[in-house]
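Journal club prep — side note

Before the paper discussion, L.F. wants everyone to see what a predicted structure for a comparable chain looks like in token form. Sequence:
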Amino acid sequence: MATPLIILAIESSCDDTSAAVIKEGVVLSNLIATQKVHEQYGGVVPEMASRAHMQNIVPVVSVALQQAGITLNDLSAIAFTQAPGLIGSLLVGACFAKGLAQSLQLPLIAVHHMQAHVMSHFIEDPKPSFPFLCLTVSGGHTQIVLMENYHSMRVLGETIDDAAGEAFDKTAKMLGLPYPGGPLIDKYAKEGNAKRFSFPISDMKGYDFSFSGIKTSILYFLQKEQKKQPDFIAQNLPDICASVQDTIIRSLMKKLEKAAKELGIKNVGIAGGVSANSALRAALQAAGERNGWQTFIPKFEYCTDNAAMIAITAHYKYIEGTSFADLSTVPTARAVW
């Protein structure tokens, strides 16, 4: 009887410490420890994030193994997030994974964080068929990715400046909402009129995005209106949130629909932290109905940073047999696919 393929994966690219165990492509556990300390600063503080990872990583890995009913001796390989992310946070996960792999004499599998977001669609059924077009949207990245098979992904377009998730969070900060503000904009937008206020959508060539202009227009708009009415934000918060959210999502969907139509692709999905946004999920489903797409949206637990997506990516890398990292591999804040 063949030994089952069991992988322990570690994700530490930003401020969530996560560990997951996967057995023959089935997730047995997926544990995430969040860091509340950053809320008072209105954003992630890199040094504090790396220190918290050092505190969390041992107990998180231990509980993930316990929940999966797996011991270290059962493991076939160790996987970790190599890039992109906060370099201090990445180092904690990478060093732990390398040390553990070396002590157990197991293969070490380096995983690209954004590839893993796309691969989150292959954790559970229904799974996309190829070719698969995925819009990955997070606080640090916005990309349209063409996936031709499990091992071939190509970035067709991406933001040339700010990410869509950053636009949500920075807008929330302008509105006086606590960090993380993106989910709060989604919450208030449900009560607002998305057509009340108008903001410009950038018209980049090809499939690229730009969100710096949207942020600037929102800032000037708020400054202008507050001069006329000091309590403008408090009196109009739901409508502002709905209008901002509608603008960002229309910008995203415009390029996604363009790419799908021009390439003739019918399997389309979203991934990344912003894919948890209810309006974006609804927009994808509506576009799918208009265009005859098969649409795919990960479960909420697989949208934000998590080790299960690292594990499923590592699973297919292991099967391929050509993507093991040697113990000198170092994490990087930015990486080209």
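L.F.'s comment for the group: The CA atoms of residues 6 and 23 lie 4 Å apart. Keep this in mind when we get to the figures.
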